[in-house]
Automatic annotation (TrEMBL):
NCBIfam families: PRK05571.1 (NF004051), rpiB (TIGR01120), rpiB_lacA_lacB (TIGR00689). The lineage of its organism: Bacteria, Candidatus Eiseniibacteriota. This is Ribose 5-phosphate isomerase B. GO terms for molecular function: ribose-5-phosphate isomerase activity. Keywords: Isomerase. Its EC number is 5.3.1.6. Belongs to the LacAB/RpiB family.
Amino acid sequence: MKVAIGADHAGFEMKERVKQYLESKGHAVQDFGTHSPESTDYPPYAFRVGEAVRDGKAERGVLLCDSGNGIAIAANKVETIRATICLNVKMAELARRHNDGNVLVLGSAFTAPGELAAILDTWFTAPFDGGRHARRVAQITEYERTHQHQ
């Protein structure tokens, strides 16, 4: 799977571990930065990853910052992006099964190192359940489509 990845300085070290793990699982990972632990702002990385997913250059995305909150908010400003913060395996499973999440957001300060692989494995393998969940995702997509400010 083609995966876009990005992080700010607080997520940099975990991003490097995630990138290595995903590549070891056979994913093609495109790294949109940051490329050092030097302080930086998170929105540009969120936008780059979101746009790569939106434009079909990546099938899914992964974003990291300290809490996950800011980078998730920024990513969700990109049309068609459903960025979901997943702090544990259950959240990762539900983000895919119920929300058809296409960008996984990890909080580096809140993700236990021993849980990281299980969260990634779950998020990348859990299917979207469709059904009533598809109806709900469609409502979000329709609102997004019809309420764009020009």
